[in-house]
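User: Hey, my collaborator sent me this sequence without any context and asked if I could get a structure. I don't really work with proteins. Can you help?
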Amino acid sequence: MRESDICSECRCSAGSGERNFVGSPSSRIVHVPVGTAVTQIGEPGDSFFVIIDGTVAVRPPVGTGAQLHPGEFFGEMSLLDGEPRSATIVATTDLRLLVVDRSHFWQLLDETPDLIRRMLTILSRRVRRLEQTVHAILHGTNPT
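Assistant: No problem. I've predicted the 3D structure and written it out in structure-token form, which is a compact way to encode the shape of the chain:
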């Protein structure tokens, strides 16, 4: 998923130096310095993030984690299920993030069925990777 995909689907508009979803004060662009923990495992989550520029490291409680790049997103799980954050996300470069608050997240999903499909595909991949990791731990092999 690319920033242009997100913005075209969500009808973003420029204003006051930040990009907001049309008619929504509950989304904004933020700048995050390298080394900053954007989310912490176990903390409540009330925002969804799309990476515009930069990269982050995903640090889950089990497994090797991953790097996320521009166009990728994180933070959706806490908004979907109401549970605390499942991973710590750390900026590995300076970041520009589109931040969508909980109040706009559901509206965003209602208005963008393609985003729902992308999110489900990515969530499925994440579950499969976790299953591979658990299988490897239980059987003493390296996950692929």
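In plain terms: Helices lie at 3-10, 76-81, 102-111, 113-139. You can pass these tokens on to your collaborator as they are.
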